[in-house]
Design goal:
single chain, 4 helices
């Protein structure tokens, strides 16, 4: 399980924090854990090639924690919220990484 956030939402979080009266460390993240398997599945379906997904092909490292998720409490208290969904971000990544490149 991992906490994924679109880079533009990360940038907006930094901008929000610049104008906020927040003290101490602030985690920038969604606070919502997602299974890495779910990401692979979404990418496969979005790319039209779910048949290429091979769950378990790469073994999990022994030192890899099963859960990495931000405690976004302080960030959310500023009124900031992510705007780009995980699905939208993955679709954008596939579009930008396609052989045709980004749309004109």
């Amino acid at each position: 399980m991992r906490d994924f956030l679109h880079v533009s939402d990360v940038a907006r979080a930094f901008v929000t924090l610049l104008g906020a009266d927040v003290r101490g460390a602030v985690n920038i993240g969604s606070g919502d854990p997602v299974e890495v398997r779910q990401i692979a599945q979404m990418l496969g379906v979005t790319a039209g090639r779910p048949d290429l997904i091979d769950y378990g092909a790469i073994a999990m490292r022994a030192d890899d924690p099963p859960l990495l998720v931000a405690d976004a409490t302080k960030l959310l208290q500023t009124g900031w919220l992510p705007r780009i969904s995980l699905r939208e971000g993955l679709e954008e990544a596939l579009r930008l990484g396609s052989p045709e490149g980004p749309p004109a």
